[in-house]
Every structure is written in structure tokens, then in C-alpha cells.
């Protein structure tokens, strides 16, 4: 039945209805569900991860800046959503989508998210989140215990003591890292004598009080870019985010770290924090956390571990020792929307000392009052959704053993894929997986052979050609949309510090089978022989034959 704008307008007069829950199951919502599940199932079966439409084509569906004057029916709008949004979305849940940290979600997250949204609690204050506030505190305690394994008495003492916090729940790893460094900065520059603290007097006065020229944060060159933002925001300055050399396995070089500490101290700059990475974003490696903890203790500075990706490895009895030393960190970042399989927008920072977050405490008269149980007094963000409920759901439904299985399988799948890459004559493994991330590139056997003996100049030229080829193969593969890997650049020791482009693979989707992994390599070989790429291959072969 066609419906006129008149009746849509009549609908407007009943505006309040939009905010009442329909009594009969709403067929409109049913249709959205159907559209999503048709799509996901279709894509799962076909292993299709992207669409032919380019982003510029898609932009045409969203180029009208006018706000619609007249209301419209939800069902009409749903058609638009189905055709333009759902159908043109990237299917991050597809098992052939192994290029990024965004993966499939457990099915129960969808209906549970709807409950969370229906309740629409605001975690900034207890008045709008009575049950959610204690639930979030419980989730923080669960993750705190996973890392620090304190006694039952410890958790009994702190879990619901609103004057303290075991951590802060936030929208992701970026905010978690910023919060960790913010707390560390304020602790170092806390009030003493007639200095009223950096919070009140600012950075310049704090440096005068400490008698130093600035603060520095030291981390390996494989750090996540969020730390640059943190250094900028907190007044530390990006140049004082000191990037330390790594070893051949992308882990911070301890001798270089000590040297850098001495260098900045000689310049009158004070080390604010050392940051260890548990699961580097590009290569999935883990810094020597124990040794870093020793050094932080020795020089008396904060020790933060960025475990946004690798933190959940702690669920695994078999692999948790890879993160040894994390329990000595003053603060730890964990992203829930990565390996806890929670929808996007959930991260946490945990603090060993329940008093640590007091240094960023903030109060207001109408909410987050002194002595209230409001979580907003210890977070950077203001109004926040009840995402902790979904972490609670994952931890309860999947359980420690379920996450252990997911972690173990991911690591073992990555090892298997590394073997497949190494067994194949035309691929070169660039970084072996320590967790579930690895990098490699297409590099024909004859070229690999020649590279091993070539002079420096030839190596450089060959690598430049290989870079072009890697870029083209990755782009073609992405556009074809059957499978997807990402790409990044690395500086492996074997090429004497030359930066090369590599494929990057993240194996976190439990539905990614060995067959799919084999098809990823097969497709890359096909692209290498495709007329758009093969001239590069010919050039390579000529160059190495001459060498
Ligand atoms: C993903 C990631 C971050 C940032 O997290 P967001 O959730 O994207 O803000 C920080 N550090 C590491 C190591 C990461 O992998």
C-alpha cells in the first residue's frame, strides 16, 4: 500500500510513539535483522570480504547535506539502510578477512547489545546507571585479577570502594593509553609544599617545581600511534616520545633503551614512563616486560604495558608466560573490542594501585559529587554507554576456558600459516608469529636465492621492485574481494635497515580454516602472474639473472 507524505506527517503528530516500544514484534526491526543476517550468511559462505564498488561510488549514496524536512516511515528508511549501508559494508566477520584486528562477533552480542541500548544507561553517574556502575566495577576487577592475581581479600576490599578505582573503562585502547599516561603524569607532578600540582598550575610550573626541562616517554619504534596523540595532548610533546630500536624480533632493545634513558637524563629531561608492548599492532611481538619492569624500578618511573591486542593471551595456560612481567606494570591497557570479541568501542586501563586514578579525579556540583559512587570522576570521557555489560557477557558466556581456546587456536593457526608461507617456494616469511600476527611477502624462489648473494645496491633495487609488487597484489586482492590481507612497512635486519612493504595477517577469526589460508596464497600467486603485475615479475627476474 503506497503511503503519502500526509500520513507520514500524521505520524509526526504522534511523535511520542517513536519512544514507545511496539507491542507486536516490529516487522521493520525484523527486516533489518533479516538484511544483516542474509548478508552475513551469504558472505560467510562465499568468503567475500569486500565489494566491487569503490569508496567514491559509495560516497554518492551519502552526498546530500540537507536534513530531510519531512518525516519518513521507518520501513522506508530501512530499505535505504539495507541497500546503501548494509549491502555496501565491509564484512569484517568473513573468515577470509584476515588483514585487520576487527573480526567476527559471537552471535549473542547482537541481541544483548539491543538490551544495552534499550536501557540506555549513562555510566558517568550512578543516578543513571544504578546496576551498571557495580557491573562495570566488577568487570574492571575481573580484568585486574587476570593481570595482577591479587588475593580475594584485595578484591573484596577495593572492588566497590568508590573512592578508589581498579581501572577505567573507555571507548578503546587510545583513550586507555592516554588515561594511563595522564595518571602517571599527575602522580609525578602531584602537589607538594607550595606547588599545587600540574592539575592546577600547568606543565610549565610543574617542570620548574621538578627542576627539569621536560618529560619523556620511552617505547619501542613498533608502538601504536595513539601514544603520539597522548604525548601531544598531555603537553609532553611528540619529540619526547622516544622511539627505541628493536631487535630482529621487533622487541625493544634493552641496551638501546638504557642508552636513551641516559641521553635524555643528560639533557635534563625526566623519564615519565617506560611502555612495554604486549602484542605490537603490526607484528604481534611482546617486549621483554620483566627486564623493562626492572629498569623502570631502577630509574624510578612509571611502567605501562600496552596490551591492547595481546592482553587476552593471559587466558591461556599454555601461552600466558609470553607476557611474563606484565603483573609488575603500574598500568595495563586492554582492548575489549579486539580479542575479547566485544563490539567496537570498548577498552580498559587497569592500575595495579587502586589509588593511582585519584591523581586525575575530577568533581562537579551536579554530578560526580565528592563522596558519590559516580564513575565519571575517574574517566577522561563524560557520558558513556554500558559497554561493560557486553564484556561481562563475553566473560560469563565464553568463560576463561572459552577464551583460552580462542587464543590457543589463533596462535596455532598463525604458526601453521607461517609454515605454509615458508614451505611455498614463492613466498618469504618476514616476521614469524609470536602471537597470532605475522607478515610476509610474495618473493619468487629464484629472486630470494639471488638476494642472498647480491651486493647492497642490487638488494636495494630488488626490494624496491618487490615493494611495488606487494602493493599491487594487495590492492588487487582487496578489490577482488574474495580474501583480504592488509599491508604495512617494516625494516628487517636482514636487509640492513632498508624499509620494505609486507603483507600483514591477523588470525583472530575462529572460522578461518586452513583451506581459506591456502586460497589466500593461491590468489596472491595468481595476481603476481596477472598482466597488471607480471611485468614487475619479469623485470625482477632479469635484474636477478644479471646479478
Ligand atoms: C589497537 C591498539 C591500540 C589502540 O586501540 P584503539 O582501540 O584503536 O583506540 C593501542 N595499542 C595497541 C598495541 C593496539 O593494538
Automatic annotation (TrEMBL):
InterPro entries attached to this UniProt entry: Asp_decarboxylase_pyridox, PyrdxlP-dep_de-COase, PyrdxlP-dep_Trfase, PyrdxlP-dep_Trfase_major, PyrdxlP-dep_Trfase_small
GO BP terms in the entry: carboxylic acid metabolic process
GO CC entries: cytoplasm
GO molecular function terms noted in the UniProt entry: carboxy-lyase activity; pyridoxal phosphate binding
Cofactor dependency: pyridoxal 5'-phosphate
Similarity comment text for this entry: Belongs to the group II decarboxylase family.
Protein name according to UniProt: Glutamate decarboxylase
Top-level taxonomy: Bacteria, Pseudomonadati, Thermodesulfobacteriota, Desulfuromonadia, Desulfuromonadales
Amino acid at each position: 500500500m503506497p503511503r503519502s507524505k500526509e500520513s507520514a506527517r500524521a505520524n509526526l503528530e504522534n511523535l511520542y510513539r517513536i519512544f514507545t516500544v511496539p507491542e507486536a514484534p516490529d516487522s521493520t526491526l525484523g527486516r533489518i535483522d533479516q538484511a544483516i543476517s542474509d548478508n552475513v550468511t551469504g558472505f560467510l559462505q562465499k568468503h567475500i570480504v569486500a565489494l566491487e564498488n569503490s569508496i567514491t561510488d559509495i560516497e554518492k549514496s551519502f552526498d546530500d547535506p540537507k536534513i530531510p524536512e519531512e518525516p519518513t516511515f521507518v520501513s522506508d528508511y530501512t530499505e535505504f539502510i539495507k541497500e546503501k549501508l548494509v549491502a555496501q559494508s565491509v564484512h569484517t566477520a568473513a573468515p577470509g578477512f584476515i588483514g585487520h584486528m576487527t573480526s567476527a562477533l559471537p552471535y549473542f552480542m547482537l541481541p544483548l547489545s539491543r538490551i544495552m541500548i534499550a536501557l540506555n544507561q549513562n555510566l558517568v553517574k550512578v543516578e543513571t546507571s544504578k546496576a551498571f556502575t557495580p557491573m562495570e566495577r566488577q568487570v574492571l576487577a575481573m580484568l585486574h585479577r587476570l593481570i595482577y592475581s591479587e588475593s580475594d581479600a584485595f578484591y573484596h576490599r577495593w572492588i566497590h570502594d568508590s573512592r578508589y578505582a581498579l581501572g577505567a573503562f573507555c571507548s578503546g585502547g587510545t583513550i586507555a593509553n592516554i588515561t594511563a599516561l595522564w595518571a602517571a603524569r599527575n602522580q609525578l607532578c602531584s602537589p607538594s609544599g607550595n606547588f599545587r600540582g600540574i592539575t592546577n598550575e600547568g606543565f610549565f610550573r610543574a617542570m620548574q617545581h621538578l627542576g627539569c626541562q621536560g618529560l619523556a616517554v620511552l617505547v619501542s619504534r613498533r608502538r601504536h600511534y595513539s601514544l603520539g596523540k597522548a604525548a601531544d595532548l598531555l603537553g609532553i610533546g611528540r619529540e619526547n616520545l622516544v622511539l627505541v630500536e628493536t631487535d630482529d624480533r621487533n622487541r625493544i632493545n634493552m641496551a638501546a633503551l638504557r642508552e636513551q634513558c641516559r641521553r635524555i637524563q643528560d639533557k635534563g629531561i625526566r623519564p615519565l614512563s617506560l611502555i612495554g608492548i604486549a602484542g605490537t599492532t603490526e607484528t604481534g611481538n611482546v617486549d621483554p616486560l620483566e627486564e623493562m619492569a626492572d629498569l623502570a624500578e631502577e630509574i624510578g618511573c612509571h611502567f605501562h604495558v600496552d596490551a591492547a591486542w595481546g592482553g587476552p593471551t593471559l587466558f591461556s595456560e599454555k601461552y600466558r608466560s609470553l607476557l611474563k612481567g606484565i603483573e609488575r606494570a603500574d598500568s595495563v591497557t586492554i582492548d575489549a573490542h579486539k580479542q575479547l570479541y566485544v563490539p567496537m568501542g570498548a577498552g580498559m586501563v587497569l592500575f595495579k594501585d587502586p589509588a593511582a586514578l585519584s591523581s586525575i579525579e575530577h568533581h562537579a556540583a551536579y554530578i560526580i559529587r565528592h563522596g558519590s559512587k559516580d564513575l565519571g570522576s575517574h574517566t577522561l570521557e563524560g557520558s558513556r554507554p554500558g559497554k561493560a555489560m557486553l564484556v561481562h557477557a563475553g566473560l560469563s558466556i565464553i568463560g576463561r576456558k572459552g577464551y583460552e581456546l580462542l587464543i590457543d587456536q589463533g596462535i596455532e593457526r598463525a604458526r601453521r600459516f607461517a609454515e605454509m608461507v615458508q614451505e611455498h617456494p614463492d613466498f618469504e616469511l618476514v616476521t614469524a608469529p609470536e602471537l597470532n600476527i605475522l607478515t610476509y611477502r610474495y618473493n619468487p624462489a629464484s629472486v630470494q636465492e639471488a638476494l642472498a648473494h647480491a651486493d647492497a645496491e642490487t638488494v636495494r633495487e630488488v626490494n624496491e621492485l618487490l615493494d611495488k609488487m606487494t602493493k599491487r597484489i594487495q590492492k588487487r586482492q582487496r578489490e577482488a574481494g574474495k580474501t583480504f590481507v592488509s599491508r604495512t612497512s617494516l625494516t628487517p635486519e636482514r636487509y640492513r635497515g632498508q624499509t620494505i612493504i609486507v603483507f600483514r595477517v591477523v588470525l583472530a577469526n575462529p572460522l578461518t580454516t586452513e583451506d581459506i589460508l591456502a586460497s589466500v596464497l593461491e590468489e596472491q600467486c595468481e595476481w603476481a602472474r596477472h598482466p597488471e603485475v607480471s611485468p614487475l615479475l619479469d623485470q625482477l627476474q632479469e635484474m636477478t639473472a644479471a646479478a
